[in-house]
Write a structure and sequence with these properties.
It contains three helices and 13 strands, in the order βαββββαβββββββαβ. It is mainly beta and 229 residues long. It has a single domain, classed as SOS response associated peptidase-like (hypothetical protein yedk fold). The strands form two sheets. The chain has a five-stranded antiparallel sheet, with no helix packed on it. A five-stranded mixed barrel has the order 3-4-10-9-6. The two termini are 21 Å apart.
């Protein structure tokens, strides 16, 4: 399962073409990030709620923290000990944590690939996983807005599914990767018939390559992290 991912440079034109989003005025597109980990803030694509720079229901790019905080959580964030950076697609409609966001707050998480580690503890080797013909794509995700310590905070999770044959040796799960033609359908929370989107992305359109152990340190950044080791 992905606990790190990376995103290369994406222009506003690319975002607009893939999702129809309206860029925030006077702001440049987010910079590339090559070592994104849970608890970091990254851009997500969603249907805007009230009070944003675009009318409600317009596609927008917004910052959110990776690791969904449920609406029912009312303690300090430091006391949250359970992991919510990934959500199993098979359990969404039965989960107290993810059921509400699935019904009301679906989103896209722009990415260029993710990392996976293989091997015994102490000797694990990192690999990058990406698509062969697409420099960037979107994970299926859910977002939520919670009140923590008197302040509103937007957070998100990435959906996971069973792995395809290519990545099954890396992990028992893989992120749900969406085709561009399915972006609008996934974000339409009125459409509950989306289980076919959980099908593992075709392995024939993906690639895996070894990368530097430096990616294991979340403070390391830069394009060197995704180069073949």
């Amino acid at each position: 399962m992905a606990s790190r991912f990376f995103r290369q440079d994406i222009s506003w034109e690319d975002y607009r073409e893939a999702s129809g989003l309206v860029p925030p005025p006077g702001i440049e597109a987010p910079e590339a990030a090559f070592n994104i980990a849970p608890s970091q803030f990254v851009p997500i694509i969603r249907m805007a709620p009230e009070g944003e720079y675009v009318p409600r229901g317009t596609v927008q790019l917004a910052p959110a923290m990776w690791g969904l905080i449920p609406s029912w959580w009312n303690k300090p964030l430091s006391e949250k000990k359970f992991s919510t950076h990934m959500a199993k697609c098979e359990e969404l409609e039965f989960s107290n944590t993810f059921r509400g966001p699935f019904r009301h707050h679906r989103c896209l998480i722009p990415a260029s690939g993710y990392y996976a580690w293989v091997g015994p503890q102490g000797h694990r080797k990192p690999y990058a996983v990406g698509l062969t013909e697409r420099r960037w794509f979107c994970f299926a995700g859910l977002w939520n807005r919670a009140m923590i310590d008197g302040s509103e905070i937007d957070t998100f999770t990435i959906l996971s599914t069973r792995p395809n044959r290519l990545v099954s040796d890396l992990s028992s799960r893989m992120p749900v990767i969406l085709k561009a033609s399915d972006h609008a359908r996934w974000m339409d929370s009125d459409n509950r018939k989306v289980s076919d989107l959980y099908t593992p992305y075709p392995g024939a359109e993906m690639e895996i390559w070894p990368v530097s152990p430096a990616v294991g340190n979340v403070y390391n950044q830069g394009e060197d992290l995704i180069r073949r080791a």
